[in-house]
Amino acid sequence: MPTLPELRDKLRRPLELERLRGFENRAVSGGLGKLLEGPLAGPFPQVREVLRGYDDLSIPEREQALEEALGMLQDSPPRAVSVPRVARQDVPTLAPSGETLLPGTALARLDWGHGGLKKLTGLGLQTLRDLLHNYPRRHEDRRALPSIAEIEDGARATVSGVIVSKTRRSPRPGMQILDAVLQTASGERVKATWFNQPWVEKNLREGAKLILTGRVKRFGRSAQLGVEHMELLDGGGAGSSLSTGRIVGVYDSKEGVSQDFLRKAAQTALSRFDMGDYLPAHWRKQCDLTDLADALQGIHFPHDEAHLARADHRLRFDEYLFLELRMLLQGEDAVLLGKRFTATDRDMQDFEAGLPFRFTGAQRRVLHEIADDMRSERQMARLVQGDVGSGKTAVAACALYLAVRDGYQGALMAPTEILARQHYVNMQNYLAPLGVRVGLLIGALTPKQKAEMQATIAAGLIDVVVGTQALIQENVSWANLGLAVVDEEHRFGVAQRRKLLAGRPDVLVMSATPIPRSLALTAYGDLELSIIDELPPGRTPVDTKLLQDTHRTQAYGFVMTQIREGRQAFVVTALIEESETLELLAATQLADDLRVILPEARIDLLHGKMAAAEKDAIMERFRAGEFDILVSTTVIEVGVDVPNASVMVIENAERFGLSQLHQLRGRVGRGSAKSYCVLVAGEHSQKTRKRLKIIEGSTDGFVIAEADLKLRGPGELRGTRQSGIPDLKLGDLVSDVAIIEAARDLAKHILAHDPVLKHPRLSGLREELQARSNQVAYREVI
Ligand code: ADP
Ligand code: MG
Q1: Among the atoms of ligand 1, which is closest to the Cα of residue 397?
Q2: Where is average pLDDT lowest: 285-299, 446-460, 498-512?
Q3: For ligand 1, is residue 390 a contact (CB within 6 Å)?
Q4: pLDDT category, 476, cuts 50, 70, 90?
Q5: Nearest CA residue ID for atom 5, ligand 1
Q6: For residue range 184-194, what is the model confidence (pLDDT) as tens digits?
Q7: Distance from the alpha carbon of residue 360 to the mean position of ligand 1, in angstroms
Q8: Which pLDDT value is given to residue 388?
Q9: Separation of 390 CA from ligand 1 center, angstroms?
Q10: pTM score, two decimals?
């Protein structure tokens, strides 16, 4: 006589097989119904009840029933699970298996049906956690789809229905229009139209069920919908109830992966597992955050706006929390002991006395912040941010002087050789008269020169060394490195910075990238921030004009008048590698064209594919005034100083980010002459025009960066990605200041009590942090 557990096992096995085979009722010959009538199911009347009529159910219904039945056949009663706050009828939830979802729980733990797993991994998702943290890009309110008769002309609307007919037409060559008539559940008809998207056609079988979003055009009583978003529903059951009649999330996807499928996938994962929560309850309470299950449910399947809002708030908070944790943990060294300098006011005065100018108020303030750090025994980790030409380099030179006065060595690291050479010349000018010995170490030196320089550094016979990555790559051993200045931080990885930190000098980072304060706090969570928000007196702002490319000749006519006055010009175009695919004007082509248009001018070319030495040589010749126009790709973006250049033309300006345009423009207006920048824009939208107008109207990098961020709608993550913060999917740096600060406080609080997150209670937090870091690394690679 078999025992009850044995019987349970026996019944469970075919049911599990049925799940594995995708609920197609093929696991048991004759169908599952037959099995249930048999003696095996006899002792389990509840299971029989749940699976009643199985053979006639749709696949999603079968899935739901089977999961419930399997839940009943567990060895031990399921562990208590947190019941999601969502109403039962809201989402057809299946009985959770009671297992807590771990960051590493593989997608393959659930059965995704034919090809399903591949679809998910194809979207870069590896684990169930990844799937659930793959939030919808936007949400659509489909609670009550409007009656077509009620939709106003020009309004955006979502309708759902079945295709009753379709036609294709081509009113003129190169234009393809696809029309389909959609009939809604209430029998209304609307004509849906796709322009130039022939690939859509294969999805438009007659009888296919669609959800369409687009703009409505009325013609008397009939209506036409210009389709912007289309969803194909696989059939009845769970799918369509996740996609209609509610607030629906719309995911980033790709060809062959339907919205319906992604919703079902998220819903399945949510219903099978207990979400747990990596954030202990008392901190959630303290920060007024909902629990993770409610948040994930709410971001994927909100039952109302309030639910979505609290989900968004929690998940957004988490993004910043983990970002801050990561920063603080990485910056761990930064709170360690560093150098202690005397950094006297007297030394600063001596430095300033040797300058041909007086420091601005902003420079003076920042210099005092730096000197305070240098005097403290804590290791300095400070970011000096200031617009191009605001005088950061002069400030850095003074800090280096303070270090040298105390008998330490200083390093100044630049992202390119051109810049390193330029800094070297500047440092010579600032420091050599004060008796400071300045050296240069770059990759272009001969092996013999390098060896000599390294020996000199090691022997302490040189005080300040200017260089590129070579300074950290080539095993430089310092006699006594006290201060390291890093120019244009964003070109260096955090790892590189830490490498440089190994000898634990004080560290000063300079950046001209105008980052709004709210963003800087997060992007550089491990650095204290000093801002030089004032330009030296006497600078006239660069006069900027936006031109349509059809008026390009005007721009070059103006360039010619400047050249006749003895000035020089930069002409910038996009990267050569991309020019082919993006149909941008290649720099070479442009240079050739200009030689024809402006036969009087001497023109030369600089691009990223040239060897460093070649670039340097061209820059030197341009600086020496040996030719008039430098046509270049964006390699000149950072730092190059040619005071005589008074005009810059930027071709295809619409292709550049505002901050990049601003950086580029900073290359002119560095001398005393009035300077100009002409933005030549090709085909572009109203929105782009609005963005470019910002550059035309302002020369303040911070104002530009804020405006740029504000112009991007929420969910447009291009901006944050550009700023090198791939951690943020929901975060909107401009509006999130309060959340950022709260998350930062909590991160600090957590680490103050447990600096390496080793308490068992925080193991979930640690694992989630790891998972997020891995994802960031992964996304940086792709
Ligand atoms: P940044 O590094 O921020 O681009 P620099 O330190 O290179 O700025 O300064 C840009 C130019 O302005 C340099 O030619 C420098 O000599 C000059 N400069 C710096 N500070 C002042 C100041 N307080 N008054 C006048 N000119 C200054
Ligand atoms: Mg500079």
Answers
A1: 6
A2: 498-512
A3: yes
A4: confident
A5: 391
A6: 888 889 999 88
A7: 10
A8: 77
A9: 6
A10: 0.55
How do 629-632 and 464-467 pair as beta strands?
Answer: unpaired
Helical H segments across 459-526, by residue range: 470-473, 494-501, 517-523
Please write the tens of the pLDDT for every residue from 443-455.
Answer: 888 999 999 999 9
The string of pLDDT tens digits covering residues 133-154 is: 999 988 888 887 888 888 888 7
Least-confidence region, from 18-22, 48-52, 133-137: 18-22
Please name which of 333, 132, 325, 293 lies closest in space to residue 773, comparing C-alpha atoms: 325
Strand residue runs (E) in 375-437: 381-386, 409-413
Tell me, in angstroms, the distance from the centre of ligand 2 to residue 388's CA: 6
| 434 Cα: distance to centroid of ligand 2 (angstroms) | 21
CATH number of 138-250: 2.40.50.140
Going by C-alpha positions, the residue among 271, 273, 277 that lies closest to residue 291 is 277
Ligand nearest 639 Cα, by number? Answer: 2
Buried b / exposed e over 338-375, threshold 16 CB at 10 Å, is bbebebeeebbeebbeeeeeebbebbebbbebbbebbb
Residue 778 near ligand 1, beta carbon < 6 Å: no
- Of the listed ranges 70-79, 490-499, 625-634, 668-677, the one predicted with least confidence: 490-499
pLDDT for 408 beyond 90:
yes
Please name the residue whose Cα sits nearest to atom 6 of ligand 1.
391
DSSP state of 380: P
Question: What gap in Å lies between CA 89 and CA 55, rounded to an integer?
Answer: 24
Residue 252 burial (10 A CB sphere; 0-12, 13-18, 19+): middle
What separation in Å is there between the alpha carbon of 158 and the centre of ligand 1?
Answer: 57
Binning pLDDT at 50, 70 and 90, where does residue 281 land?
Answer: very high
Burial code of 167-177, b = ≥16 C-beta within 10 A, e = fewer? eeeeeeeeebe
Which has more pLDDT, 121 or 332? 121
Question: Which atom of ligand 1 is found nearest the CA of 643?
Answer: 14
Binding site membership of 161 for ligand 1 (Cβ less than 6 Å):
no
Predicted confidence (pLDDT) at residue 718 exceeds the cutoff of 60? no
- The DSSP bridge partners found for residue 487 are 510
Q: Does residue 394 have its Cβ closer than 6 Å to ligand 1?
A: yes
Using most ligand atoms within 8 A of CB, pick from 388, 392, 422, 488 the residue to mutate for ligand 1: 392
Cα-to-centroid distance, 643 and ligand 2 (Å) = 13
| Fold category of 543-698 in CATH | Rossmann fold (3.40.50)
Atom of ligand 1 at shortest range from CA of 386: 3
Q: Where are the alpha helices (DSSP H) in 432-525?
A: 447-458, 470-473, 494-501, 517-523
> Confidence band (pLDDT; 50, 70, 90) for 577?
very low
Alpha carbon nearest to ligand 1 atom 23, residue: 359
- Does the Cβ of 423 fall within 6 Å of ligand 1? no
Locus of tokens 């992964």: 778
List residues bridging with 191 in a β-sheet: 181, 224
Q: Which long-range contacts (CB under 8 A, 24 or more apart) does 355-361 make?
A: 355/394, 355/430, 357/536, 359/391, 359/394, 359/395, 360/391, 360/532, 360/534, 360/535, 360/536, 360/537, 361/534
The encoded tokens of residue 76 equal 């031990």
Highest-confidence range of 392-396, 728-732, 774-778, by mean pLDDT?
392-396
Quick check: 506 and 370 in contact, CB under 8 A? no
Calculate how far, in angstroms, residue 103's C-alpha sits from the geometric centre of ligand 2.
Answer: 44
Q: Whose CA is nearest to atom 10 of ligand 1?
A: 389
Ligand 1 binding pocket includes 663 (Cβ within 6 Å): no
In the reported structure, the alpha carbon of residue 190 is separated from the centroid of ligand 1 by a whole-number distance in angstroms of 65
Residue 502 CA to ligand 1 center (angstroms) comes to 31
CA 669, CA 692: separation in Å to the nearest integer? 19
pLDDT at 11: 81
CATH topology classification for 345-532: Rossmann fold (3.40.50)
Q: What residue owns the CA closest to ligand 1's atom 17?
A: 391
